[in-house]
Amino acid sequence: MTQENNDLDSLLNRMRTVSSPIRGTLTEIHTSLKGMSHGRVADYIPELASADPNWFGIAITGVDGNTVEVGDSAQPFSIQSASKPFVYGLALDSHGRDHVLSKVNVEPSGEAFNSIVLDQSTNRPFNPLVNSGAIATTDLIPGASHVDRIKNLLSKLEQYVGRTLHVDNATFISERSTGHRNRAIAHLMLNFGMIEDRVEETLELYFQQCAVLVNCKDLSVMAATLANGGVNPVTGVRAIQSEYLKDLLSIMLACGMYDYAGQWGYLVGLPAKSSVSGAVLAVVPGKFGIAVYSPPLDERGNSVRGVATCRALSERFGLHVLDAHFVGSSLDNEFRPSRG
Ligand code: GLU
Q1: Is the entire prediction scored with pTM above 0.70?
Q2: What biological process terms from GO does the record include (predicted)?
Q3: CATH 2.60.40.1180 is the classification of domain 81-210
């Protein structure tokens, strides 16, 4: 066993105790990063612009369901793009991989998240974590009416979070009245037959999805659900079929951090998603979920303190998923059939 693995195991053990030293570790990281003063709070709608740049919360939830939180971890904010992997999961659960793949590709785009651009040969959005792909997966939310579809969306997110969620109406209205690019993207996709002819309804659902109120602890439970094979570790409720977990995690690793995805994969190495509201959630498969909330964003649109916190945790505890520590095994053991 390597030093990092030992550190990680003792970190998990420490999370289980009430006077947990992991709180000390998180407090230390929080204290060392809270003075970071660069970055800008998103200001395209008043509900985001009014966020306090000093807000900074960190939460970690283990696959045993315990959470340790420091700072402003209970501060509510709109989930924005952090919803996108979970809506992709809902589309996969509802329609299966082949159908979803026919509507949304799984390639990093190399373009801004809100680009009005589709894959030229197939007219598909590049991936489900850019706006075009997220509008396409929103189109796949099942239900006979708008009301059914928003209920299905909220109850899916609630399975991950383990509590009742609400759409913040002011944020929804602001998203809707400023969402001209998203409207253009949706109409382009309608033109190519990538989404159904109910564009306004699907856009409303997309704007509502962005406006769901969560806090840092909620996001850490959502991430922990992905870390725990798709079962919410607090409630025991399965939120996604296990066969689709790797679809979510691989797309989060490749595309979850806007135009920083390559460096994120290199430096932090965790499946993750960030949002314009200043959230970052990251998954340590089989171990725990991490969430950070701090509104100031860097030039790539990621929370400055969110990225710094995840880097610090990944480096300190050797969390990079490709940081393979060879422990010695026989080839026969390595080539046993997968559990599916
Ligand atoms: N509501 C935002 C949009 O659709 C989401 C942006 C984000 O968090 O990336 O533009």
Answers
A1: yes
A2: glutamate biosynthetic process; L-glutamine catabolic process
A3: no
